[in-house]
């Protein structure tokens, strides 16, 4: 899997000598460019960029929530409380990342930016695995919100705790992967284990509505998939957790795609809440909002350090955490198939990666573009990733420009689904209550025209 690190072997820094060939010798000195102090501060967050990005992505969501739809006060109040906690989590994450960077450097968890090799920036130790800060703040926010919002006898409490258990489990496994650097085949097993609490707690329906053009051929209007639907959700959790990890390789891409998808999920949820009169249907989408707002806020804080040029790397800890969180909200919010549409860029990247991931072609450790230090441009290689495919199709680009292009593509794919949802939601306003019993139906099937 493509990852932006080339960590050096752990160096023993104790006062004891290293024994080699029965002779005691001192550890060789590091080259001058590697003698970086662990106390050296990282670059400050890119606050201006994050502020502009936040306005672009979050303003439509709050406009729909507060002005466009007439949403009940009892439903808006917990969403705004959650938003306030998320805002506090943003500033807390911004403050904690520089502190955590010093500790991970002391433990030799760092990497070199391969896409800057041959330049002074390519010799700087970049702290790795800073996704652990995002995950820790996220867990604190969601637990505090649980105390403020859910009663002890709430029907949603079991699923909420199961969601937090799966997310926490996946964060732990991701950090283990960062430390041990496990083979990619093992990576497929990690989310399958972490998803078990989620699947065991799922109490939603497993039926889908058959599109009318297919009803004469199938003979059914509603099909109950039963246990097969849970298998689908299990594979969805595995895919979402790994797809962000393999759609990577340039500064800001991992955190950036999470921010774009999370924003699309929020807009989708508020449109479904506003277009429905069914309280249970509204609560399912509000449940999703409660988890996505903290994810978006903490990811924006991480992106302020991870945007080009990155002063920290997110690590597998973050990609696993973010992927599992979005899988959880899609499954328990009952729009798991719609979620897959938001991941269309990741689906394309996975399809391009299949020959290498499954051993049909040679798969190098880092499937990154080729960097030219003279021009500062990236050239696409023959590796099967969307990053390289985009460069081969549209020519060489700088790393910053390439990331912006890829996130724009991600946003366009997600917004197309959002606008489709908006038009259908307006058409079907007031009919959601009769559609709700098929809670697990795909978004593109439930909105089939009558």
TrEMBL record:
- Give TM segment ranges: 49-71, 83-105, 126-148, 160-176, 188-211, 231-248, 255-275, 287-305, 317-335, 341-360
Q: Which residue windows are coiled coil?
A: none
So, what pathway does this thing act in?
Protein modification; protein glycosylation
Keyword set for this entry?
Answer: Endoplasmic reticulum, Glycosyltransferase, Magnesium, Membrane, Metal-binding, Transferase, Transmembrane, Transmembrane helix
Question: Per UniProt, what is the membrane topology?
Answer: Multi-pass membrane protein
Q: Does the keyword 4Fe-4S apply?
A: no
Catalytic activity from the UniProt record: a di-trans,poly-cis-dolichyl phosphate + UDP-N-acetyl-alpha-D-glucosamine = an N-acetyl-alpha-D-glucosaminyl-diphospho-di-trans,poly-cis-dolichol + UMP
Protein purpose: UDP-N-acetylglucosamine--dolichyl-phosphate N-acetylglucosaminephosphotransferase that operates in the biosynthetic pathway of dolichol-linked oligosaccharides, the glycan precursors employed in protein asparagine (N)-glycosylation. The assembly of dolichol-linked oligosaccharides begins on the cytosolic side of the endoplasmic reticulum membrane and finishes in its lumen. The sequential addition of sugars to dolichol pyrophosphate produces dolichol-linked oligosaccharides containing fourteen sugars, including two GlcNAcs, nine mannoses and three glucoses.
Instruction: Quote the protein name from its UniProt record.
Output: UDP-N-acetylglucosamine--dolichyl-phosphate N-acetylglucosaminephosphotransferase
Say which species the protein is native to: Populus tomentosa
Give the taxonomic lineage as stored in the record.
Answer: Eukaryota, Viridiplantae, Streptophyta, Embryophyta, Tracheophyta
């Amino acid at each position: 899997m493509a990852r932006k690190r080339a960590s050096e072997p752990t160096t023993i820094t104790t006062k004891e000598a290293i024994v080699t060939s029965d002779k005691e010798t001192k550890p060789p000195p590091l080259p001058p460019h590697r003698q970086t102090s662990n106390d050296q501060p990282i670059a400050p967050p890119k606050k201006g960029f994050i502020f502009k990005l936040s306005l672009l992505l979050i303003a439509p969501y709050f406009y729909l929530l507060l002005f466009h739809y007439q949403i009940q006060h009892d439903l808006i109040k917990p969403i705004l409380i959650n938003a306030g906690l998320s805002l506090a989590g943003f500033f807390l994450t911004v403050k904690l990342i520089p502190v955590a960077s010093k500790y991970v450097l002391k433990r030799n968890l760092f990497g070199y930016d391969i896409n800057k090799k041959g330049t002074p920036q390519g010799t700087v130790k970049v702290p790795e695995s800073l996704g652990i800060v995002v995950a820790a703040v996220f867990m604190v926010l969601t637990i505090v919100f649980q105390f403020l919002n859910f009663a002890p006898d709430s029907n949603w409490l079991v699923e909420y705790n199961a969601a937090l258990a799966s997310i926490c489990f996946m964060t732990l496994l991701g950090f283990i992967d960062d430390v041990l650097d496990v083979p990619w085949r093992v990576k497929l097993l990690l989310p399958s284990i972490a998803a078990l609490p989620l699947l065991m707690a799922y109490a939603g329906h497993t039926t889908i509505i058959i599109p009318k053009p297919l009803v004469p051929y199938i003979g059914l209007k509603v099909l109950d998939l039963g246990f097969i639907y849970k298998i689908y959700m299990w594979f969805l959790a595995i895919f979402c957790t790994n797809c962000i990890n393999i759609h990577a390789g340039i500064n800001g891409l991992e955190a950036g795609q999470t921010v774009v998808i999370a924003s699309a999920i929020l807009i989708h949820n508020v449109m479904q809440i506003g277009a429905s009169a069914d309280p249970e249907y509204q609560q399912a989408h509000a449940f999703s909002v409660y988890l996505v707002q903290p994810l978006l806020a903490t990811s924006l804080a991480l992106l302020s350090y991870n945007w080009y040029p990155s002063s920290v790397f997110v690590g597998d800890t973050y990609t696993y955490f973010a992927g599992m969180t979005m899988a959880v909200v899609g499954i328990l919010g009952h729009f798991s198939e719609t979620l897959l549409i938001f991941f269309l860029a990741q689906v394309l990247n996975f399809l391009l990666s299949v020959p290498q991931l499954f051993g049909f072609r040679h798969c190098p450790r880092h499937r990154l573009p080729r960097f030219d230090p003279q021009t500062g441009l990236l050239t696409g290689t023959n590796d099967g990733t969307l990053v390289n495919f985009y460069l081969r199709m549209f020519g060489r680009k700088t790393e910053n420009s390439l990331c912006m292009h890829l996130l724009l593509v991600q946003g366009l794919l997600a917004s197309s689904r959002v606008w489709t949802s908006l038009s259908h939601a307006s058409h079907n306003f007031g009919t959601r209550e009769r559609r709700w019993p098929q809670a697990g139906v795909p978004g593109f099937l439930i909105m089939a025209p009558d």
